Amino acid sequence: MKKSLLLALNLLMITSLLGACTPAKTEETIQSDKNTVEEEKLDEEVLQGNSVEHETENEPVVNSVGQNDEESYAESQGEEDAVRQEKTVEGYVLDVEGNTITVDLENPEGRNYSEEGLDRGVKFDITNAEKEVIPTSGYSEDRECRIKTGITVLITYYEENGKNIVTKISTDNDEKEIIVYVSSGEIEEITDKTMKIHVREGDYSGESLVFDTTETSIPEEASVNSTVTVTYYLKENTYYALSFIFDDL
Q1: What is the DSSP letter of 119?
Q2: pTM, whole model, 2 decimals?
Q3: For 147-178, how does the pLDDT look when each residue is reduced to its tens digit (9 = 90+)?
Q4: What span, in angstroms and rounded, lies between the C-alpha atoms of 145 and 159?
């Protein structure tokens, strides 16, 4: 009887011990599982955070590139506009060679002498220029704009790569001849190459002019106080006589 009771007590104690150990182990397992879950969540949050941060870092770069492209285009456009800034000038056509014309911008009117302006001519490219005829008296609607030597032109152009590119050229097609002056007066002095005349009528009336006579001839009968009419042109402040007409010869 005592042995049976003792066995029962031992069994009860073993059962109690087993029951006490089992909950403790279960709590550790639960705690471990919780820690594992929390670590997994933390890892997921870190991954998500890194992904968001990476995307956030990339966005400004994309925007910056786009912005730089726009700024570069604006700068390029501004430079192009500056280069293509148009000007308008008036001049006399000295020469035409293909689509290139040489123009005297200092004197747009007729020539005082045949070579005037050749040393100061400016070249213009009229390849793609709009051509316009300026209406004048006797103007005809179907008149063609003819760019040729001896006319006055109005030019709108811009500079590009050292060239003058014409966008529009206008003219009245009126060819300007060399300006010839006519004066009449009394001879004051005669030399081998000059004649001094006091002008009474015509151009430069009231003045005494000295004429270069190398381009014409003087009649042997011409003398001081003779009345003469002279045609001439002006070049570099020198009056070059073209012809003499004597009233009393």
Answers
A1: G
A2: 0.57
A3: 999 999 999 999 999 999 999 999 988 888 88
A4: 23
